[in-house]
């Protein structure tokens, strides 16, 4: 019998133990890395509740303050809010599992750049939409695209995806 994977007294799924290694950087944005810039990261596990958007935003702003990168705060706050909201609305809704699934947020700094990575267990792919003028949503990824140097997503085995956006420059 194998021991349970437990954090703070709660069993967790090994399928959701994805964290980017400290040297992780999205492959399509590797050309942006400044030579010799050491990686630094901050991570947070988010519950599947609406208040997690606020928690994620505050966590990101705190990390930027700690890295003396408050010039990115406004853009990062919006990007984090949009990506976490999408993960809650689409990623968790489509995963088909119980609502005890979690979302994970990671900020990875390389020099003057910070990548925001949001992981969710859902199978759906992020899509830039062109909503009608009277549609109440659908512009989140357009906001992410306009505020980031580059953004994208990648599948995470065995299931789920990581949606990322690079800010700074």
TrEMBL record:
Keywords for the protein's UniProt record, in alphabetical order: Kinase, Serine/threonine-protein kinase, Transferase
InterPro entries named among the record's database cross-references: Anti-sigma-factor_SerPK (IPR050267), HATPase_C_sf (IPR036890), HATPase_dom (IPR003594)
Keyword Ribosomal protein: no
A single GO molecular function term of this UniProt record: protein serine/threonine kinase activity
Ranges of residues in domain Histidine kinase/HSP90-like ATPase: 72-151
PANTHER family reported in the protein's UniProt record: ANTI-SIGMA-F FACTOR RSBW, ANTI-SIGMA-F FACTOR RSBW-RELATED
Protein name per the record: Putative signal transduction histidine kinase
């Amino acid at each position: 019998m194998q021991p349970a994977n437990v954090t703070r007294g709660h069993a967790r799924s090994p399928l959701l133990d994805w964290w980017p290694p400290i040297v992780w950087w999205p492959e399509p944005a590797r050309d942006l890395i400044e030579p010799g810039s050491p990686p630094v990261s901050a991570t947070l596990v988010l519950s599947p509740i609406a208040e997690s958007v606020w928690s994620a935003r505050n966590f990101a702003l705190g990390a930027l303050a700690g890295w003396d990168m408050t010039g990115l705060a406004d853009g990062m706050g919006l990007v984090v809010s949009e990506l976490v909201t999408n993960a809650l609305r689409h990623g968790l809704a489509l995963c088909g599992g119980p609502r005890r699934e979690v979302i994970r947020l990671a900020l990875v700094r390389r020099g003057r750049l910070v990548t925001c990575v949001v992981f969710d267990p859902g199978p759906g792919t992020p899509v830039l939409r062109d909503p009608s003028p009277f549609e109440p949503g659908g512009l989140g990824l357009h906001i992410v695209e306009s505020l980031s140097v580059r953004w994208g997503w990648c599948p995470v085995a065995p299931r789920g995806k990581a949606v990322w956006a690079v800010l700074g420059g």
